[in-house]
Amino acid sequence: MGKTAGEKASEFVGTVLGVVVMGAIFLGGGWIIGFRPIEWVMDFTSTVTATDAPTPRPAYVGNPIPVDDQPVDPPPPPQPELWSCGWDPTMNENWHDDILCTRGFERDRPLLLTDWDFVTYDDMMAAGADYEGWLNNR
User: Fold this and answer.
1) Is-contact 66 72, C-beta < 8 A?
2) Which DSSP letter does residue 17 get?
3) Which of 115, 104, 112 is closest to 129 using CA atoms?
4) Nearest 10 degrees: Cα torsion 76, 78, 81, 87
5) Looking at residue 69, what is its pLDDT?
6) Of 19, 59, 106, 109, which one has the fewest beta carbons inside 10 Å?
């Protein structure tokens, strides 16, 4: 005996859902490995106008050649690395260690203004600048 209309409809819906699920799996896998045809369509349909085009580079890029025959001063020798202190809160409820001083890979977190009960950001930044000066001049 043949299939009823309900069975045929159920089979058709199952087939459509199977095709949709398989397509989603293939497109998702393709998306993961870099297959993105929608981006190709968007690139193809976008037009570049004269204002969107990159500006041409000048013929000569670099330092101008000195006109006079005067020697060019060499750059100053590199300075030894100096300490730099800045705001770096620790979130440990101790406001006195919220300044971090660094010099290359060296780090120093001083306890500043420890005799003060309450310090503000400006107080700590001023104390950090003083400490930075002390580090660089010792």
Assistant:
1) yes
2) H
3) 112
4) 60
5) 61
6) 59
